[in-house]
Amino acid sequence: MQVLKKSSLKVILFLFFSTTIGAQEFYFAGAGAALELDNNLIGANARLFYGINETFCFGPEISFFPYQDTEDGYEENIIDLNINAHYIYEVSHKLGIYPLSGINYTIEKMRLIEDNNESETENEFGINYGFGLHYIVNNFYVFAEFKGVVGQLSGEFITAGAVFYLDKPNKKSKEEH
């Protein structure tokens, strides 16, 4: 059994390094609008991602939904902190689709509209799942994503925005991406 574990680890390391050696690494940042689907809250999203190669990237992102009216005289505020990973499948030289997975930490606050001084706060970890697509326009991407969160504070979100390179990959990698 120990030999099987060591062999499996070697295969995983080989596959990981074989996809990253010689690949163009890059950083990119983006922002967009976010929609929380349970209560139709509108917010903003910001992200900073690291691309190991043309197909795999990961990084932190934050979505902020300021206090907004929900039902029964309450207002809700959400801060959604995530670390997500994308594995990009290129459909064409400009269009890519990707599954999304990661971890989440959500902070939700609820308060009565008539009594803004008292609020109830919940904080929980969760697991992210979802999918997205991006389209290359000149030197940036436009993207749209669906993300679900599984956990004590489950939720579903749609985000759309733009992503810009902070350090541009070489021309060959950009054309392939």
Automatic annotation (TrEMBL):
Top-level taxon of the source organism: Bacteria
Keyword Kinase annotated: no
Signal sequence interval, chain numbering: 1-23
Sequence ranges assigned to domain Outer membrane protein beta-barrel in this UniProt record: 22-139
Keywords: Signal
Descriptive protein name: Outer membrane beta-barrel protein
Species in which this protein is naturally found: Winogradskyella immobilis
Lineage: Bacteria, Pseudomonadati, Bacteroidota, Flavobacteriia, Flavobacteriales
